[in-house]
Amino acid sequence: MISDADGREGRQRFDALSASLRPDLYRFAFWLARDRAIAEDVVQETMLRAWRSWKDLRDERAVKQWLFTIARREHARLYERKRFETVDVDNLIATEASALASSDGRDIEDLRRAIARLDEDYREPLMLQVLFGYATKEIAEHMGLTQGAVLTRLFRARNQLRKQFGLEAVADDGAEES
Amino acid sequence: MNCLEFRRAAGADPQHLTSEARAHADACPACARYLAEVLDLDARIARALAVPVPDAQASSTARRPGQTRRRVFALAASVLVAIGIGVTGWLVLAPSSLAADVVEHMRDEPQAWSSHTPASEAALAAAMQRGGARFATMPGRIMYVQSCWFRGHYVPHLVLETDTGPVTLLLLRHESVKARRDFDEEGYQGVLIPVGAGSIAVLTHGTPLSADFATRVAALIEWTS
Fold first, then answer.
1. B47 close to A (CB below 8 A)
2. What are the pLDDT digits (tens) for B4-63?
3. How wide is the angle at C-alpha B46 spanned by C-alphas B44 and B50, nearest 5°?
């Protein structure tokens, strides 16, 4: 049985970890949804569910991956199906113009728009690798794919961005992901 | 390995190339250039993905019943924009210090601290060449390499593995500092050290920074151009 002291300590630990990981979690949710309001909803739902299961977490070092897994599920459960038929990327990018704007210059802003246009199958592994430092094996576990499929998606994501920015694209054999 | 195979491998996982791929890049200037392009694009992708995060307090108050989340978010966003205008005005008027710019750069590249596998030698060579720097001897195991756009120049951004945690180096060939200067800003503990006509920034995030270690690393840097 958990005592009040244990409960308070657990809550404090959870609050501290969730505060430190909130920026990463928000960015993860934002690039899944490409929508600030949905991203905030996903973050909030993820934190609620994480707190309910907090006592079952055995390894705090894995907490970020755990939160991302919950957020991915929440995003799919709450919004993905609802938006599937209606999402219009041009409209979405126009709506989220201020989120995609950058004080770092037009180059970064253009890149944000290009990333937002990537298919989610390519956008998510690219984000996990480049922004969060995931190894391809970890991405494969997170997304339920083979490592080969992850490598293919990462190559295609970069290749599409290269094309959009006038860099020479590499021939893609169009092979199915293995 | 041929050029097409190399480019597919580098386009998928440029930080973790096999020894065969690294050997190919060493022998093929065109593929070495391709790798440098991929690493440059990755640095920009990382900055692009690091979108601003709304304030948590503003977000939680934006959940009052009777208002749609989007409307409330717009309200919170307008407050943030107002704050942003104020902050931007302050930034325009206030001179930006090198230490502050280094910390700002760190905040935009948070993934750098969390790599668990060593960076490839080819990636390191490409970043060092572009930044006009080399190590007299290697300072330790390098877990992360990027060639980053910083104050108008590409600079090598490296993360070294140490016993006390990851240590970041920015090799700033174009940034002259008169004397060694320690800084402690926003959870980043660091030091700027003069190296010839340039300098290096050495910093940690949440772990102690050894002054001796920073000095030893600085002594290993040589500018090549």
1. yes
2. 999 999 999 998 889 999 999 999 999 999 999 999 899 889 989 988 888 765 554 444
3. 115
Q: What single-letter DSSP state applies at residue B81?
A: H
Is residue B76 scored above 60 in pLDDT?
no
Question: Which chain B residues are Cβ-neighbours of A95 within 8 angstroms?
Answer: none
Residue in A closest to B63 by C-alpha? A41
Q: Mutation target for A interface from B111, B117, B145: give the one with most A CBs within 10 A.
A: B111
Say yes or no: B66 and B120 in one domain: no
Extended beta strands in B162-224, E state: 167-172, 181-185, 188-195, 198-205, 221-223
- Is the CB of residue B134 less than 8 Å from the CB of residue B128? yes
Helix axis angle, A36-52 relative to A4-33, nearest 10°? 150
Q: Quote the minimal CA–CA distance from A5 to chain B in Å.
A: 26
For an interface test with B, which of A18, A25, A35, A40 has the most B Cβ atoms less than 10 Å from its Cβ?
A: A40
Residues of chain A neighbouring B56 (CB-CB closer than 8 A): 19, 22
pTM of the model: 0.58
CB-CB: which of B50, B56, B113 is closest to A27? Answer: B50
- Is there a single domain that holds both residue B77 and residue B33? yes
Q: Quick check: B191 and B180 in contact, CB under 8 A?
A: yes
Q: Please give the Cα distance from B130 to B122 (Å, whole number).
A: 12
**B124 and B90 in one domain?**
no
- Asked if residue A114 has pLDDT above 80, the reply is yes
Task: Express each pLDDT in B103-138 by its tens digit.
Answer: 888 877 777 787 777 888 888 888 898 889 999 888
CATH number assigned to the domain comprising residue B176: 3.40.1000
In chain A, residues with a C-beta closer than 8 Å to the C-beta of B49 are 27, 31, 112, 115, 127, 130-131
Q: ipTM for the complex?
A: 0.86
Name the residue range of residue B13's domain. Answer: 3-107
